[in-house]
Each structure stands twice: as C-alpha cells, then as structure tokens.
Design goal:
The protein contains 24 helices and 14 strands. By secondary structure, it is an alpha/beta fold. The protein folds into three domains: about 15-115, no CATH class; about 135-330, Rossmann fold (3-Layer(aba) Sandwich); about 350-540, 3-Layer(aba) Sandwich (Rossmann fold). An eight-stranded mixed sheet has the order 1-4-5-3-6-7-2-8, with helices on both faces. Strands 9-14-13-10-12-11 form a six-stranded parallel sheet, with helices on both faces. α6 (about 65-75) packs antiparallel against α8, α7 crosses α8 and α10 packs across α11 (about 175-190).
Amino acid sequence: MSEPSTSAPGLSISALLALAKEPALRDLVGASVIDVLNLLDPDLTRGAALRTLATRLIDPALAMRDPAVRDKLLDLLPLGKARELAVKLHIHVDTSLYNRLRQAAADTLQEQALFSFFGIVEDPRAPLAARPSRQTRMAGYGLFDHQRKSARRVKKFLAEPPRKVVLHMPTGAGKTRTAMHVVADHLCAAGPTLVCWLAQSAELLEQAASEFVRAWDHLGDRPVELFRMWGDDTPSLEDARDGLLVAGLAKLNALLSRDVNMMLRLADRTTLTVMDEAHQSIAPTYRALITTLHEKRPRNALLGLTATPGRTWSDIAEDAELAAFFDNTKVTLEVEGYSDPITFLIEEGYLARPKFRTLNSKAGVKLSDSDVADMSNALDIPPSVLERLAGDHQRNLRIITPLEDMLHRHRRIIVFAATVPHARLLTAILIARGHNADVVTGESDTASRERAIRRFKSADPSPMVLCNYGVLTTGFDAPATSAALIARPTRSLVLYSQMVGRATRGPRAGGNPTAEIVTVTDTDLPGFGSVAEAFLNWEDVWHERR
C-alpha cells in the first residue's frame, strides 16, 4: 500500500508526519529503536533523519489497522483536519473531538472512509501473484548423478512393502528436484492416480507446486492437474483423480476432522504421499492424517523428505520413534570416496564452502533457576529468554557492527532474529543508518511479505539485508544469498541446519563459492557450528535396510 502526496481535502500520512514534533516521532518509531540509535549516533534521533526514519517505517495501511499507531496518528491531526475527518466519518464535532475520532476509526466499517481521507490506495507496483487453485500442465527434467542414484533407491523401496522411505539429503542438494523425479515417474507408471504432497509452510508448498510445473513439462506423459490447497486456495477434490495435490497440513487435517468420508475417498485415489520436512511426521496433529493416506490401501506408498532425519538434538527415544514410523528405511545421499556427502557437494560446487564464525554477545541476560528448569523441559529456548535477549541493547550493538561490516563483502544477507520485535528493531536500525533492509515475519501481511522477498531475490546490485523471524527457514530459495547472521539461539539442530542452509547454495546451483555464517553465542545457551555434524547427527537411530 502507498499514499499520494498531501492534497485537500484529506491529509496524507507523510504530510502528517512532516507536521509532527520530534517527541511524537520518537514515540512512533519506538523506544527500543531510539535507545539503540542514541548509542550509535544521537543525530539519527532528531531532525530530518528522525522524520525520514518515521516515514519509512510507518506503512500507512498497516498503521490504520493497528489501534495503538492509528490513535497516535489521529492525535497529530491539526484541528481543522480533525474536524474535516469527523465530517467524513459522520460523527458529531464537540469538545471530545479526538476521542470521538479514535472511537469511530476503530469501527471496521469506517475503514474505507479513513483510507480515503489519508489518501491510502492499492499499490499497483507490486500486485499479488495470481495462483490458480487448479492448473493443467504438460510434460518433465534432469538430475545429477548422485541425485539419480538416490532416486533409483527411493523407487526401489516404494515398490516393495511396507512402501515407506525417507530421502535424506543436505539442504541445497536438490531434495525437492529429486523427489519430483520420483513423483513424475510414479504418475506416469500408476496413472491415472493422485499424489499428495504435504508441507506445513506456505513457502514449502509454493516451492513444491512451482517445481512440479517445471518437472512435468519435461517428464510427464499426459495432461494432469495441479491442486493448490493452502492459504485462500480451496479447490474441490470431489473429482480429483489424476495429478498432484499440494496441501497444507493444517488445511488437510481440518478436512479429516470435518469430513472423514471425503478423506477416505481421497486416500482411495492417492497412491503416493510425500511428506516434506519428514521429521514432523510423528507430531500427534499430523500422524493420523499421514497414516490415513498411506494405509488406506496396500499399494499406497509414503515418501519423507528431510535434511535432518530427527525430531530433536538429544532425545534419542523420540528420534527412534521417527525412524520406526518409516520402518527404519532411509536413502541417504552417498558418494563413493567421501565419508560424508557434504564434503563432496562443497568440493564439486553444489554447496558453498561455509566459513563459520561466532560472535560472543556477552549479553547481560542471566538465566534463573526457573529458566534452566524451563529449558530442560522444552525442545528449544523458551520465548521468555528470547524476548530478554532481543531487548538487550548491548547485544544488539554487537550484532549491528559486524552486520554492517558484512555488507561490504556480500550482496544479499539474511538475518535470523530472536523474536518478531527483534527483527523489526534490527531492520529499523539498518534503515536509519542508510542501509537497504527489509523485514519479514509471520505477522507480515501477504503483500508486504511478497514485495520484500521479491526485492531480496531481484538482480539489484546494491547490498541488501532481509531480517526475519520464523518464516524463512524452509522453502525459501534465494541463491544469491551468501551470508547469514543467526541471532536466534536454539537447541534444535534441525532449525540451525535450516537457517545455515539459506546461505549455502553453491555455484552449480546458481549460488556462491563461499558463504559466511555468523552465529551469535550467548552465555549458558547452546550453539552449533557444522553442517556436516548436523547431517550425520541421527545416523545411530536409523538401522537402515539395504
């Protein structure tokens, strides 16, 4: 969303901010940002620099939908403009004018009038990508030798009982591409039939749908249908009998709960189920769904995909449960002459050669006995600890300095923040200091999220930083990314591996020869430092069949 320049009647947000006093601007920017900026350079918190920062950070449409920000902006209206807005909102002008404006603006039915007054219009420069719920595509593509070998072994295990297997390949080694080769072969051999591809995040689902389109264009033997079932897409499955259903786990699980008969009919037609991020398969929420699709008929097969074939870092029993769910059948990327595939992939240029270094934050956050107890009972760092780390100004200063240094060496850098507010704070600091930065979180609206990701993936030669929390660890493919700063401590080797993988695409995969991985370490909190360690961590619980 964007807004035009000041005009009468009405008043644009940028014009309103131009009239605001500095204390009001500081309040809008936020105390945390102001505190850190004051430590870096006090000039950034006053005058034109402060006004520019506020204008860049405040998205007009989002501001009007955020009650706290909206109320602050309404209070900044000059009296004449406040009366003009009151008329537009059809409220009586009296001594409680601003209070009445705040109450009226909270009514969602008044949103159109409010947007009109402030000149907020749809941004034609970045429309949402059209994603049809159903597509008919024709025809398939190639694999590297090591991918072809893995695909052959996967197909062997899917063809014999119990028809279960996990494909275990490092991030960036082409799991999705290899799996799509298996999917296309299955559709050709067993058709007409359905293949169901399951994943949790929109990024993974979109990646799968897009990859299938490319694969079938070269490997297919007939017209088939692609069904997208996540987000706002809800295609009818009554006549779905031939093609690929790419479905969000939550959405398909809701169908199972709502209409068991429909799910059973779907399972009758589905002869192959693919579970992306297979380590989530035994979660109670999804296990019944996967079991329904796989076990409805004896011929149905199940393929899991993962770079980290374990649920945890240290709970062997839970990891063994995952292995048992797939009947201890795992195809691991193997290359003759190499002890682990990571070394081969790096030396051959499929993966970037990672340069790991740690940044000791020496944060002032001390773990209490309660924190230690919470950590011992949780799979990862408790949110309360992450929130305190995110608010530590000295820690944030320690992050900003090396991040700015990395901008001299890298064109695209991804930052994994500790919390949503932390991602926003780091972005605001970078913008205030003149850098090109964007933020993406689970709270970002769809349009803003897609615009930020498109800018990051663009061919623009200027250095750019994308700060995120919780959304870009899987299914996000931006090969130009050559550096990652991991400011989120984690006990999860799965999560750490996923974060590292966002920056390790090699030149043969359209990426870079080297990657810089900076991990912020905090006293008494865990950390990792090797993608090879992550890849081999769970081998002791998988007693693989040959």
